[in-house]
Structures are given as C-alpha cells and as structure tokens.
Predict the 3D structure of the following.
Amino acid sequence: MTNVQKNRIFALGTLILSLYLGYESFSYPGNSSLFPRVLVVVMGFLGFLFFLRQTLLSKKIKPSPGNDGTGSCSVASEKSSADKTALASAGLVFGSIGIYALLVGLVNYEAATVIFMATMMPVLRFSKKRWIIVISCGLMALLWAIFFHLLGVTRPESLIFG
Amino acid sequence: MFENILLGIGPLLSVNMLIAIAGGVTGGVLIGVLPGLTSTMGIALLIPITFSMPPEVGLAMLGGIYLASTYSGAISGILLNIPGTPAAVATLLDGYPMTQKGQSTKALALATFGSCIGGLISVVALLFIAPPLAEFSLRFGSPEYFLLAVFGITVIASLSGEDVEKGLIAGIFGLLLSTVGNHPLTGFMRFTYDIPALFDGIPLVVSLIGLYSIPEVIDMLTRRKSGEKIKLNLDESNPLRFFPEVISQKVNLIRSSLIGIAVGIIPGVGCSVGGFLSYDAAKRSSKKPEEFGKGSTAGVLASETANNAVTGGTLIPLLTLGVPGNPVTAVLLGGIMIHGLRPGAELFTTNADIVYSFILSLFISNLLFVPVGLFMAKYCVRLIQIPRSILAPAIMAMAVIGSYAIRGSMEDVWIMLFIGFCGFVMHFFAVPRAPMVLGLVLGTMAEGELSRSLSLIHGDVGAFLIQLVTRPISLVILILCILSLVQGIRQQIKKNSVYEN
C-alpha cells in the first residue's frame, strides 16, 4: 500500500468517525455537548480536506520509480511486507495482552504473569528454557514487590485462586 | 522567590527524595540506552509507581528519568552508532567516529559533562524565568486558557508530522477522547455507553501507557532481528581527566546551553533540533570546521550540551502555562496533574514547596547522572544485547499492571488496550501521536474554560468569539495559533512541491 493510498484510507476513516461521533454528540443536550459538536465538525472538515488533497496528489504524481504515489516494484513490495508484519505483530500483541488480562481474572495475577511471560518468550523465538523460567518468575516477583508490597495496590480478584 | 527556594530545599534533604531521584536517574539512563525504549514510554510506564508517592517525591523521580534518559541516548549512540533517543542523533556525527579512533571514554566524558552543564544552566533559567511568567499568567482568564490549549495543539500539530491535517485530526481526536464522561459544569454523561469505568472520563495515565507502550512494542517486534550480535569498541582511560578540556570550551558550552533553552521554550521543536542547531552553530564558529563529522570534540560537546539544555527550557511553558513543549513533557504534565497540581501561578504560590523542590531536584539529577554515566555507561550499554523477545513481553506485563494500579480496576487494562489500538492505527497511518496526547491532557481544561466563559455571557457564542479578539492577551494567543498553522501549511506546500517535481 502506498502512502497516498494509506492517507486516503485514513481520511475516509476520519470522515466516518466524525459522522458517527457527530450523530452521538448532536443527540446530547446542546449546553453539554457544544465542545464535542464543534470538534467533530472541524475533524470532519479536515478529513474531507485531506481526502481531497490526497486524491488530487495521486492524480498529479507521475508514475516513476521512487515517486511515493506509485513507487518502484521493490519498494512497494517491501512496504507491503512491512505492513503485513506490523499487522501480524499487532495481532499478536493485542491478542496476548487480551488473553493475559482474562487470565488474571480467571486464575490470579501471579500465575497469569508467569504463564504470559513463559509463553510469550518462546513465541518470540527465545529458546533458553532455564532463562525463560528465571525471567518469568523474576519479573513477576519484581512487579509484585513494587506494586502490591511497596505501593500497596490491591491485588486483582480472580475466580479460581482468589 | 528566595524564600520559596529555601522552602523547596527542605523536602530535598529527605532520604526518600534522594532515593527517588537516584532511582529516576538510574532508570532514565537504562531507558535512554536501550533503543526502542523512549523517554515518553518510560515516564508513561513509571507514572503509576509515582502515583502513591508524595507529589514532590514523585515529580522528582519523573524529572530524574526525563533528564537522564535525554542524556543517556548518547551512550549507545557514541559506543554503537545507535541513538538511544532521537535527542542523541546529532551526537552520533562525531561521537561514533571518536569511538572508532579509540576515544570512546573521551567522547562519553564530553557528552556527560556537556549534558550536565547544559542541564544545570537550563535549570537556572527555569528557576528565574518561570516564576515571573507564572505571575504573568494571573492576567489570564477563561478565554485565554481556552486559547492556550488550542495553541498547544496547533503548534504541535503543525510541527510534528508530514501533514498538518493529520496532526490537527490527531489533536482533535485527543480532545474528543477527553470529553468522554461528565460534562465539567452540567455533569451530563457523554460517550460512556453505560460503562462505569468511563463515567469519570478516560484515565489520563492509562491512556498515556496505552498510547506510548503498545505501538512501541509492536514496532519493536516488527523490526526484530534474531541473532544480532553487537560489537563494543571500548578504551579504558580515566574519564575525569577530560573535564579540563570541557571547561576550556566555555563559549561553546554557553552558546549551546542558550540555544537549547531557547529551543526548549518554543513548543513542538524538541531536543534533537536543539542538538542540530547547536552543532551547526559550533561548526560555523569553529577554527577547524573540517574536523566536524570526523570526531570533533566541539561537535559532541555542542550537541549534548544543547539537547540537555532543552529539558529545562521545555519545563518553562509547561509549569507556567501548562503548554508542553514535546511529547515527554506532555506525559510529564499528566504526571503533574494526577498529583492534583495545575500549572500556572497557583503552582508557584500555593504549591511553592512542591514546585521549587521539583526544580531543585533537577539540579541533583543533573549532577547524579555524571557518575552514573561516566562509570556505568560501558556496563549499561551491554543491556542493548537484551533480546527483544524478553523486552517486549516485559513491557507488556508492565503496561498491564501499571494500568491496573491507577484505580485498581481491570477495566482500565481494556481501556489501555483500546487507546493502544488507536495508537497503533495512528502509527500505521503515520499520524503523529504527540498532538493526541496534548488533546487528552489539555481537553478537560479547554472544555472547562470554554463552558465557564460561555456561562458568564449566557451561552452567547458570538459574544465569546468577540471576546477572543477584543481581549489583548487572547488576541495575541489567537495570532500565535494562526501563525503556527500558517507555518505548518507553508512547510507542507514546500514538501508537496518537492514531491510533485
């Protein structure tokens, strides 16, 4: 995906978000929603302006290697592969944190942290088993000591081990 | 003012304070050394730890992290040619060539002493410029504060990205996120979708953690290279023997410090610009400009002195007007606000003990990173060999517990993930995150001041707009807003013409 294409998608996304938030904010009483109303109108206008500018820019750019609108084949394929890697990494990060947060509520904080660390390190290609155990338990102990012991934060409640 | 300075010295003498400063400086050095860990992320992740501390102790710790991480980006830059932070980019130009010549200790000593001196001079400037500026802010009313928030966003949006529209959209999105929850005057709930965790709004620190840790971790994993071995080229000379050489370059030190302070005061410009401007000034005034880029001591000293002088400069508008100069200070503003403090005149009068002890703690932080930098740098830099497969899950675990710890609620972890998702989308589409942070931080103030102004004139929007152009201070801020936008648009037109040709 080229930068111009990405920009157009972003501008469209902004427009859709403005419409949705505009619908929401205009449904609230006027004296409590003046600020968000003004903001969504300005955001929608900027999104439209950006979309228009990017569309004009894509028409102006001549198709030559190195020109960002189209680019050479190798640059385009490199960008596309970087985008795919970024999306895959994002999926991994959001998925793993989501599961970790659910585990904290299901088992308990200590076990969930050790499981999370001990699973994530091999997934990210760290293969020294002894180190995985030491680091997982060590980090859990460090965070536990700082937050629950030193700072007196209440431990999160969990279903199984309380 | 001198009474207030004496008032600030008291808390500094406590053991807790000194431990917090030492912890902040050591943590900051480690954060700065590790590429991929930014000062912004470090401060965002560590705010929850400072949350339960007394404000002066917590702020001193955050200040220590800010100063030390700005300096220590130079360590990996000089030894490995990898800048730990963007602030250190100008230092690479001469720092790494010095290492290649077998002068790594000398380069580190110059960078450390230069950073310390630049930092100290900028804290002196902060100490003397901030109080009168804060007093001046007493003349500000609601319209002025509203416009200050707008100015903060327009200036950062115009300078921090390739497209002005993207920066402005990010700023507005941040402002919109700040409207979630109660209306500041009427109490009406907006955008809460019956989720109790949103009734009080999106927690600022939780958002900062999500916005700065999640996209960085994703980026870290995207650029992960396995089996990467780093070769260190170290020499074993005594770093203290280079101090006289540093002091002999008085003009360079003072000029670089002044450039750094001036750059810091201007919102949105940042440490790396300060480093480059000062490097350029040193090169122009040098009798041996041909040595620059090949291991010039004046080059390393200029860039490092300036980028640490920026830190004190950025704190001047932050503490007096609540306008952060860069993303790190925007996060720092979040850290100040969660302790119930509000920048401005009140901070320098009612909370004088806290703010002065914070400013004075910056002196200690600046002095403390000298021994840490000189004698631990070579060991710290080995941390760069920590695989990202350990670092990434560790940051994720810290982000989860940090988000939970603020209100003791697992719902905040989900909010952090949502904001992290927004941050990732922005990173993916190359949208700057700094304006969004500013929007989030300044949004409540902007809406509150707007509502207060309108309530005083019975909701008459036209009268409010007339107020903005008839009150002298608000007119000046309005003109500054327009100028910052015009500047951003001009830069963009230049870039577009390069694109088209």
